[in-house]
Amino acid sequence: MDWTLEVIVVPVSDVDRSRDFYRDKLGFKVDVDTRVTETMRIVQLTPPGSGCSIVIGEGIGGPGGGPEPGSYAGLQLVVADIKAAHAELVERGVDVSGPVEIAPGDGGTFMHFADPDGNGWAVQEYRVRGTKPLYEALRPSTAESN
Fold first, then answer.
1. Pairing mode, if any, of strands 75-79 and 29-37?
2. What long-range pairs does 46-54 form, CB within 8 A, spacing at least 24?
3. pTM here?
4. C or N terminus of the chain, fewer CB within 10 Å?
5. Can you give the pLDDT at residue 127?
6. What is the DSSP code (8-state) at residue 128?
7. How would you classify the pairing of strands 40-46 and 29-37?
8. CA-based diameter of the chain, in Å?
9. Cβ atoms of 26 and 89 closer than 8 Å
10. What is the radius of gyration, based on Cα positions, of the chain?
11. 64 pLDDT above the threshold of 70
12. Which helix (H) or strand (E) holds 18?
């Protein structure tokens, strides 16, 4: 059975400001922006090429209201070319750190930014992503698994 991660709810304080940031600054596609009830609004956005989306909104935290806006850290995007991704984010006005190699080899270079509430994101370079999905790149070959 496959288990796919397809949605992450990100806590934000201002839905319109956050939607605009993710859409206009990061290039995420707005899949859904709907008011379900007077107290519930759902906005789903998907990064280009991703099988996983984020959801922001009003009244979606469940019992107790959910996490505080800006309390998430470690959300991560993966790109095949971090220099090109950095240039794109800078051009779009995102306050992003420069790429830093923290480990040698493919997958060891990162940069960081935060959304308007302070939710922390990392961008990791995996050059192999330019040729195949990461799950294929990380899958052991048939010879290794026998």
1. unpaired
2. 47/77, 50/77, 51/4, 51/6, 52/5, 52/6, 52/7, 52/8, 53/6, 53/7, 53/8, 54/7, 54/8, 54/9, 54/10, 54/22, 54/28
3. 0.87
4. N
5. 86
6. G
7. antiparallel
8. 57
9. yes
10. 17
11. yes
12. helix 15-20
